[in-house]
């Protein structure tokens, strides 16, 4: 079992050490996601709408009543918002990975995911399909699938040259035997999530980077334990790809 207390303590220290404030970056990230959520809900609904702030969702009334938009418009906006959300989530991970390496990550790094947008979108699409298929069997297999592919995006962000299926298979190998640890980790943040809800999401500005760095701490610790994944400070050999029996 990983040392959760130590990893959380390190996450707090790393978050505070960021040369470009992690809280400013998180505020920008959450505001953009909030605006995207408003746009999506405005187009798809004409009364009460749901918007997302961090891990919380809130129902608000549309500022303007309008006639229903054509279905193609609704679908287009929803897909566009989903795609942008995937790329921004990757940019947020890239920022925190850079902070963990001690690099100065400018605000613009939030948009670095656009540099390999195709792989990010494909990875999220494949994960969504896989998780949906496992969920059809029962809810438990679906939850297990979520944890199985938890590190796939981290692997891809660490090495954009990695194939989508390689990133998924690598995550599958990394999380084997650690899914319960990750589940317990998530349970420890339930209290913070409730507090974020009570503050209408404002507390998310401080809690989101802490949670993200803790999760990356688990990712790094598991990589070191299993020897699967990129070693910090070392670049993989050119053309190197992941295979289930690799120990790189």
Folded structure, characterized:
About 65% of the residues lie in helices and about 5% in strands. By secondary structure, it is mostly helical. It has a two-stranded antiparallel ribbon with strand order 1-2. The longest helix is centred in the middle third of the chain and has 30 residues, at about 70-100. It is globular and about 55 Å long. The two termini are about 20 Å apart.
Features:
248 residues; globular; mainly alpha
Explain the layout of strands and helices.
Blueprint: H1 4-17, H2 22-44, E1 48-53, E2 56-61, H3 71-100, H4 117-137, H5 139-148, H6 152-158, H7 164-175, H8 179-188, H9 190-198, H10 204-226
In short:
With 248 residues, the protein is mainly α.
Q: Spell the H/E element sequence.
A: HHEEHHHHHHHH
Number of helices: 10
* Net shape: globular
Helix-and-strand structural type: mainly alpha
- Average pLDDT taken over every residue: 86
When the domains are counted, the total is 1
Rg over CA atoms, rounded to whole Å, is: 19 Å
Strand order of the largest sheet: 1-2
Helix content: 55-70%
Oligomer: single chain
Strand content: under 5%
* Largest beta-sheet details: 2 strands, antiparallel
